[in-house]
## 1
Amino acid sequence: MGSQWHRSSIVERVVEIISKVGGILCTRHIRQSYRKALKILCIILLFPALLPDSVFAQEIDILLRGGHLIDAKNQINGRMDIAVFKDRIVKVSPSISSEKAKKVIDLNGLYVSPGLIDIHTHVFVGPETGFANGFSSVSPDDFTFKSGVTTVADAGTSGWRNFPLFKQQVIDRSGTRVLAFLNVAGSGMTGFPREEDVNDMDARMTSLVIDQYPGIIVGVKIGHYRGNDWTPFDRAVEAARISDVPLLVECHLPQLPLEGILSRMEEGDIYTHSFCVASDRECLLDEKGKIRPFVAEARKKGIRFDVGHGGGMFHFNVAIAAFRQGLWPDSFGTDLHRISMNSGMKNMLDIMSKYLNIGMSFEEVISRATWNSAQSLKREDLGHLSEGAVADIAVFSIREGKFGFVDAAGYRLDGDRRIETELTIREGRVVYDQNGISARSWLENQTIKF
């Protein structure tokens, strides 16, 4: 306030306004005394406004200094300091004083981004066989922070029947922010034949559960069914439209035409496993390697295309051909599960590094892993580092050398750059630090002396 007003005039102006009110209420005999007392009171009440701005410098828990920030929402691509207080970003500026900072982390030569968002995972881990409450899923915290990921969306591992268990068992106990696409199958990914039971695909029950958990359940997933019956797909569409959330289309081995699938999807819906060749699954490219016309129309309509790499759903010959024709992924969903994490997929950074070496700029890579993904989930409070936003932050280095990247068919792409995580901050707390850049030297440890 002091920089916008002459400080001495603040009190005078307030006194003038209140005196007019007091003048109406008071007799002429006491007005003069009233005004003097009022002026003293205003000085006391407005004392903070009279002090230099430096007295009220923002307290900072963590100051990230000198990193190269990439923030797509705010169109930042350059050196910035970032101040964190509690769980929030309080300032982003080319230069921030460290006077009030409890911890200063030097990020010179490193890249900074909002925490990464993985929109396709399977994290409903439990004691059962398979994915739903099963050992084929993985615990999110075991894999996220080391990859700079702070938010994941579970891709339909649970349905309306068992989502409360998933929330209690995984979502509420994880340091990672866990969101979810709710499977139209009532019990989620329980395997065949139960997962294909059309009688358990209830659009209204699915929608009812979605509405009970706004912001946590972010969409409806249709996936594991076989045959040429449109009923499962149509019920998933119905549930998504009732709750006004995106539809995530996976459709493993469907006997449904791709054109029919895309025609039923609307702007904001997501098609995953986009860049693969699989039996009984129509590719986005035709037999000549060209983007099918109805795929291009779907893109214009606003349908979003996710990688969904997984253990068998990403092939370089499709991805590179599509990339060269302008069909780029909107997000880098990993399809993380117990098998894919040890296959060609590995983690989200591996997918990002693949596209970096295919020809996508690092800025575009980060945009798709953060702000684009937040928009896909309709969680636009995430994926950026605006002042006031949650302090989910990732710090990376780009290592140069000779590297190999493997697709789902076991074929290698040679590259010369690999993205590596240096630091991850979740809600203002350091949760991963590869090289101890946030830590003090052991020589400063005075708790034990020899």
Note: The CA atoms of residues 23 and 32 lie 10 Å apart.
## 2
Amino acid sequence: MADLVIDSLEIMRTAHLEDRQLFFLQCAMEENCLASAAYKLQTDHVASWHLETRRLLRFTARILNAGTADFRPMIPKHLWEFHQCHM
């Protein structure tokens, strides 16, 4: 059986704060990964929303399979969604 384990030491080793303009977070916005306040900026400041900054907690997430079987997601591969912003 697959047994996924989060490498908490890797998170602690790599965690840091980073300020980024919304211009560089458009992919995250399209995938609804930002707080609602970011989307409010987009509607309230149509001409300049992309210049606003957000503070991000960045870290590397390393996931190990400590089990004896391969990890197989429950959703069939043909149903996975790939967003254009990752190209």
Note: The radius of gyration is 17 Å.
## 3
Amino acid sequence: MTDRKKTLKISYVNYFGTYNPSLRTPDIFSRIFPKTKYEIILDNSNPDIIISNSQRCPIRKDLVKSVTFFHTGENYRPNYSQYDYTFAFDRLEDRRHIRVTSLSYYGLKRFIKNYDTYDVADIFNKKTKFCCFLVSNPGCRTRNKFFEKLNKYKKVDSGGRYKNNIGRRIISNTPWVKEYKFMITFENGSYPGYCTEKIGVGFKANTIPIYWGDETVNVDYNDKSFINCHNYSNFDEAIQKIIELDNNDEMYKNMLLQPWLKDNKIQYELSDEYYIKRFNSLLDEISNKL
């Protein structure tokens, strides 16, 4: 006879999703909660835990005893004056904080490169175009500036709403990106730890991402597999490296062969094992207070 899991009740308030472990791309809670030692159920009337991505904690007066979680997929800082626990991009050593990246939703196993099936010659032969850019938010001046600079070397195809120059908007990005040797995968802003799904889009399309945003990106990913603009003094130097790769097929293919993750393995702090351990500890703490 197995021990019955203890139940904890959760509610989502001002959040971009809800608790649904069956989703193909669930949020971090829907993906990890079912793997913990607790039974998690939705209960909007009397939750033990409230999950929100609002900058200000949206607590009803009748729910003041609920523990509060802040989770964001944006470049926002955790606010401990508003929330009990935070889940964000920041690399913080704090028992109340768990670092979560956008790619944590899906799990990073898909980024472990399988060299038994990775045919670099076939991938390279399908690269018929130079570089793509898929952006709708025009608010990042740094990204916009780089796009214009690289365009001076060769046309960069823009398939988003911003600076669209291909006559149509790209909806399904991976098949389109696969045609290109490079992809600009700049974040909306720069902050240590703030690394979204953008670089992952480039990896999964077997292109070489041109990355800017998280200056500590090389902690999680192998920056021999992409152009890390933070490794260069300025964008002109980064573009010179891109030009060199564009004109040297063997050098380009050698970069394609590099593992995307450091040592071709998931760093422990981004692994399911780590998240399950941290979530269990956190939920124990909450359960003991109830």
Note: The chain has two domains: 6-107+268-289, 112-264.
